[in-house]
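Attaching the record inline, Q. Sequence:
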Amino acid sequence: MPANRVKIFGERNTGTNASSRIIEGNSDARCLPATSGDLNPLLGRIGNTAWLPGKKIRERLLDSIFEGKGPLCAWKHCATNFADAAPFDGVLVLFTVRHPASWLVSLFNRPYQRLERTPSTLAEFLNSKWETAGREQLGRASFRPLDLLQVKLDSYFSFAGRLAERGIAHHFLRFEDIVLNQQAIYSSIAPDLENARTNFHELRTSTKDRSKTLDDYRDYYGNERWREALNELEASINAQIDWRKFARFGYRPLSACPPSGRAQTKAAAPWGTAAFNPN
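Structure, as predicted:
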């Protein structure tokens, strides 16, 4: 039965905002609360202001908004370490994923919720520690960035299994695919959405940078221009990734020299579904 409620989980910079906008703009389904602002607009706005002193004070304030809330109101960037999938009965659950190296570059450029000093180079960032927030559901442990991504992915796989046991609809959405063929990606989840529109409206503008359009993202991600930022770190990045976890999405280990003018990921195994735009 098509769902009128959707819950989206995904790491930072994997398309969670855009997924929500695409769904709500093309169906009667509505996305469940996923951010501090969704749950408490006033505290969420205060917690995200630069004038509140101290990163940790801001993060503790934002954490407090999620305390005592059930899994349907969990932070969208949390690890899905929920003991029971029952609260999600009747809810469509989506997990957003992205090529790990592409994600690393984006997190370096947009280090949302980072509590430590942000390194000045990607090489330093690769081996730095990322302290997690309380609402991340990882006990405020610290991880290297790529380790954090893989811990989150493990939690998605585990929770997806519990959802499957209860017959709850769920999909993994790939960030890159929506850039190349947004309508096809939407069509793949439309059967699980209440009153999905047949006249699809494409999301053309960025949810983070209004100066960028979908064509800008298609050029950047379709041609893997993010690889220019790797600065010969391919081997080091490959060594930190368990590529078996990403194989199901067609993501492959980095090579030193991608095909000129086309993305390495285009030549990979067929993609699943994905979401568009950072965050």
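Strands lie at 5-10, 30-31, 91-97, 130-131, 142-143, 170-174. The chain has one domain: 5-34+70-267.

More tomorrow.
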